[in-house]
Amino acid sequence: MSSPYLVLGLAVLFVSSGSILVRFAAAPPLALSFYRIGLAALCLAPVSALPAARTWPRLSLRSRLALAASGVALALHFATWVTSLSYTSIASSVLLVNTAPLFAVGFSRLFLGEKAAGHVVAAIGLALAGAALIAAGDWSSAPSSLLGSLLAVAGAIALALYHVAGRGLRETMPLGAYVFTVWTVAALTLALLCALGRVPFVGYDARVISCFVALALLPTLAGHGLVNRSLRSLSAPTVGLFLLGEPLGASFLGYVFFGEVPGRSTFLGGVLVLAALVLAVARRE
Fold first, then answer.
1. Are the C-beta atoms of 81 and 155 separated by less than 8 Å?
2. Cα–Cα distance for residue pair 191/206, rounded to 1 Å
3. Which of 123, 76, 75 is nearest to 102 (CA)?
4. What is the pTM of this model?
5. Which is deepest, 167, 203, 205, 277, by most CB within 10 Å?
6. Alpha helix (H) ranges present in the chain?
7. Are 249 and 13 in contact (CB under 8 A)?
8. Residue 162: how many CA atoms within 13 Å on its side-chain side?
9. Which of 283, 280, 225, 285 is nearest to 98 (CA)?
10. Calpha distance 277→99 (Å, rounded)
11. Which residues contact 265 (CB under 8 A, 6 or more apart)?
12. pLDDT tens per residue, the chain (285 residues)?
């Protein structure tokens, strides 16, 4: 795996498997989200828990609050996006949740005072048009599908908040310590949501438990780990363009394993969303 492009291609493949594993598990979304991030954090603990504990006392109160907010936002991302897959197609859900970078632009302007370039504003408008087309198609096929689309958009918003809240924190602490801390906060938040929603933590069969483990290892640890490795040798825009393959990969896998064929509105809306993301990312080169 000497080529960084091969590494990045594998990362896209692993990340694309997330929605498929959620469908295979057919378990409560909150339980899936909790075990995905909780088991991933547990895997990092042997190498990252001690550095995280050493770094924490040196952080300012503002940094600690930002870490906590980032973890809560990540938990909400998983809770809403995984739930969306119970109501709408894999293609619609993954396309809409991948609009997160464009929401991040808005939040950066709102909270950090960063101005968006003209092409990014155009990309946001294009993505909104695409999202509207996808939602309209979901509404016409089944009203419950529209709920799935809204939950996927909520997942995108939460993911954008996660990225904005964590801006700069990766430079103030080791990457492993940062990831472990945020994932731990996310897991604790999801555990609380499970308890409040009376979602069982135990009693699942071997198939579901296997999906819990696979979600932690493949899209979470392997997928995002390989993305971070790719960033060492490739520019962020190049990595971002490759990651646009996730909606395509997930849609293809959805067809192969579940026979899901995107409708016309989803296809046309997806083209607009992907074009918007390409416009936003490619112009950063």
1. yes
2. 21
3. 123
4. 0.87
5. 277
6. 4-25, 29-55, 61-84, 90-97, 100-112, 118-141, 143-165, 169-172, 175-196, 206-215, 224-230, 236-243, 245-258, 264-282
7. yes
8. 23
9. 280
10. 7
11. 133, 134, 136, 137, 138, 140
12. 457 778 888 888 899 899 999 999 989 999 999 999 999 999 999 999 999 999 999 999 989 999 999 999 999 999 999 999 999 889 888 888 888 878 887 787 777 777 767 777 787 778 778 877 787 766 666 777 889 989 999 999 999 898 888 776 767 788 889 899 999 999 999 999 999 999 999 999 999 999 999 999 999 999 888 887 776 677 655 666 677 778 888 888 888 898 888 888 888 888 888 888 777 766 554
Structural tokens at position 93: 């859900």
Question: Taking Cα atoms as reference points, which of 210, 277, 283, 252 lies closest to residue 32?
Answer: 210
Say which residue the tokens 């590494």 belong to. 7
Burial 209-239 (b: 16+ CB within 10 A, else e): eebbebbbbbbbbbbebbbebbeeebeeebb
Report the amino acid identity of residue 275. A
Each residue of 1-28: pLDDT tens digit? 457 778 888 888 899 899 999 999 989 9
196 Cβ contact list (under 8 Å, min separation 6): none
Q: Which two tokens stand for residue 64?
A: 């600690």
